[in-house]
Reverse transcriptase domain-containing protein
Amino acid sequence: MSFGLTNAPAAFMDLMNRVCRPMLDRSVIVFIDDILVYSKNEGDHACHLREVLETLRREKLYAKFSKCAFWLHEVQFLGHVINADGILVDPSKIQAVANWSLPKNPTDVRSFLGLAGYYRRFIQDFAKIASSLTKLTRKDVKFVWGDDQEKAFQELKSKLTQAPVLTLPDGPDDFVVYSDASYLGLGCVLMQRGKVIAYASRQLKTHEINYPIHDLKLAAVVFALKIWRHYLYGVKCTIYTDHKSLKYFFTQKELNMRQRRWLELLKDYDCEILYHPGKANVVADALSRKEECEPIKVKAMQLVITSDNSGKAKTCYSMAIDAKVHKKASMD
């Protein structure tokens, strides 16, 4: 295949998918010209490796021996390190993040968010943390680097350099999703047998800010099912939410058009929605439990008391109030 063609990567990826289709997601993962063969034990691995090599020879595809590595217990693949314990961030990428210089313009911010966003599955509430940086990339927003942006930048660097080891899925059973939502964004975590597989989060779209809290919590459930469809479709899973009424969503008779559309999507999955109190939610630092209502602050107050001829007291109040009241973040 010629170099430089726009469609070359897509065409070659399609070829590899067709060639390796019988082995995909069973013992082989393919990304363009990178082939990862995985097995549970050495005996199975010998069979899987032989099957892959015979397939390549039959299809007249050749691998350069000097670029191949065999019988590894730990492997670097697409920016991740995979071993028996699970999956973690490639140390070389962590070093690049740690040494990242302060962004000077929106392009620099996009570059940083591009690298950080690739590892967002390792960072809980990624969208919430990066919200102040994301705003700087918008078209009509003036680039002003303030305390909020500096805090978000340093926090993302810190969390990436201390990213946890995520477990790999072990079979199609016992998947559990914890979902949460607030007017700051949506957040969820995928677990299996008490171990975290991935985190996911995103900011709200413009129209979603107007959703009632019931629909907002339901949107978090739909978001989780869509983003982890490859794990959850066709298997039984349990979804926990801190909004109790969602437990009865499948039996509700009166639904609006948006809820009906989401109901059709949920029926494609073998899922059960259960109530889980927000304080007990595994999604630590839950978005919906963040206090957003600031107290009203009185900057000045003047009290004047006078008496009229009839001896009655008359009181006049003059206040200057500086207050900013947000929408309530959670309401069960």
Remarks:
- The chain is about 30% helix and 25% strand.
- Residues 42-58 form the longest helix (17 residues).
- The two ends are 58 Å apart (CA to CA).
- The first strand starts at residue 28 and ends at 31.
